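Before a colleague's protein record goes any further, I have to sign it off. Alongside the sequence sits a line of tokens, each denoting a local backbone shape. I want your independent view on whether this chain really folds as the tokens say. Where you disagree with what is written, explain briefly why. This is what I was given:
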Amino acid sequence: MSAVTTARPAIRARLPHLGRSAQVGVVLAILLVLFVLLENKFPWPSGLIYPLNKRFDALYEWIVDNQNSHWLFLYFFNHIANFLDQLVAYLNGVLVWLSWVGVTAAATLITLRWSGRRVALLVCGSFLSFGVLGVWEESMETLALMLSAVLVSLAIGIPAGVLAGRSDRFDKAITPVLDVMQIVPAFAYLMPVVIFFSVGNPAAVIATVVYAVPPAVRITALGVRGVARESVEMAESLGATRRQVLFGVQLPLALRSIMLGVNQTIMMALSIVIIASLIGGGGLGDTVISALSFLDVGLAIVASSAIVIMAIALDRATEAAAARMDASRHPEGGLRTPRFSARTLTAAVFVAIAAFALAARAFGIASFPDTVGVGDFIAGIINDVITWVQDPTKPVYPVTSWLGDHLVLWGLEPLRVFLSDSPWWAVIGSAVAIALIVSGVRQMIIAGVLLTAIGVMGVWGPGMDTASQVLVSTVLTLFFGVALGIVAAETPRFEQTIRPIQDALQTLPQIVYLIPIVALFSVGRVPGVIASVLYATPVVIRLVVVGIKEVSPAAVEAARAFGASRAEVLLKVKIPLARPAIMLGVNQGIIMVLAVVIVAGLVGGGALGYGVVVGLQRNEFGDGAVASLAILALGIVLDRVTRGNLQRRSI
């Protein structure tokens, strides 16, 4: 804390008459002048490029040659790969044996047992829809992959979360690791995983686990730390050991938080299943990627709809289960005392599941009826609509074409040229100066080192292209998010109206946003920008609403007592006091925007995301790995600069 408090006067002493925003403006103005005077005269020097891609290619060749002989693979990597491969195959085999009747019955009865009737009906309809859409087998492959990743994630995340909740030292040690895992887009994990585990289910599971573990750790740790100290002290006063306190007090009282961690882990896993299909994940993701490669947007939307339905069903089921677990510890909440014991009910559920599965095989209805499927019909209708939308003679095309062209001509392309053609040393210097002004010396060093690393790896141009897309998308996200958040905070009816829309948008996997937008705007950078705005805006809205609502009523009443109007209270009291929450929205918005912009490489977004796609599709592992590292570096820079501002303001 002392280091932070001494940093502020040092910065202000240099430009005492300017605030932070003005100082940032001065830095950008200097960069603009240098761009005008020295445009394209100082590209990144070829002498400062290290051929890291060739080193990765050599590493991959060594791995291929030694995969079946070196001890590191024989006794470590291969065992992990075999275990994960067998786990996915086993779960997929169980789902196939249960048949569509048994799986639907299992999902419905388990949800009924732990989540309630309404959610059970939703889950039943959701699983039946997989067959109706004609993607039952693909859905079960996705479910098996997701369940495997969730089981591994929870096996790692819950123990680590418990340890982090009980040990400050361990919590501080793993926090930077978890930060990096959550900051970096899932796309960046794919290439390093493929290098060590090749293409297939093991690689897909590991990439999913890396993305899904952090919420399990963080929320479990939060739950353990949230247990009342009085409860722990009471158990210790009765002679309980640390183990007895953990299993008898802390874990039972933190059960709701752990269930919420399970919920978030499932959502994270489902959000990456389509991306994981690029490295052998199969299932619905493979259907979506294949359909997009053949421009069959209708089939891609049908398959992605099944993923959305699965995500909503599992989200509601686990969320309701967490709520019921919490209510069961507070009988005054209205839950009736069950007629049968929990063990009896659970046993009855599994007996009923087996009965449904056996009955389906006995009556010859183990396969979902082909005559019921309407997926191809729906896909055909969607493709016809898209053909109409893309017809230049129809009224929609001129609107989307005008919007896309102006977004490129007045936003994306000028900013890309500005960042790419400015002197490289000026861009790094400006970023370093802004990081120093906004976040302090530590973040300045991180920004300078990582931006320099992007150039040294030979991807300065694609890196600046990605940065330009992220910045344009972030500006649009903040414009809509902050404006709608302020309106929602001041108008309860409007907040209630948009809340279901926000919930639905936050449930969707990242790439699902891109598919319909590609149909409207064709491939290119524009779909990535628009999809990232839709993906990140709900989070910004929520944080702005929370920040404004948490402003002290005393401050508001004091302003009104001095005769301030509603607008003056909002602009001069609420928004300034809600600035930490708004800055958190900026931080989260940038990270979420980066994730979608990178995924947009699948639909012509170019830049670093396209480098990963090409590396996977053409077996150019070195180039793909370098693009992944550059994404990692860019993500950390963007996060640390805005997060540093948050930390300083909170102090």
Notes: The domain at 55-385 is CATH 1.10.3720.10 (MetI-like fold). The radius of gyration is 26 Å.
